[in-house]
Write a structure and sequence with these properties.
This protein is mainly α. The chain is built from four helices and two strands. It is elongated, with a radius of gyration of 16 Å. The N and C termini lie far apart (46 Å).
Length: 72
Amino acid sequence: TIRSAQRTGAQVLWASVREPYNIRQAEEAGCAIVTIPPAIFEKYLAWHGKPLETVAEETINQFRQDAEGAQW
């Protein structure tokens, strides 16, 4: 686990972040380094500090807008 690796003095790297919430998870886990694609980091910055409920509502609204604009 991350905690047991840290007890050895190792620094833990969290790689392959796929969603902004992974950044929060890595931080809570105590990871020293996190590799983040630019697009995911931009979303994280836009959502940082907002309640998860607000982020969820924004995401749902974006899905609705995308669906309305889809060519079926």
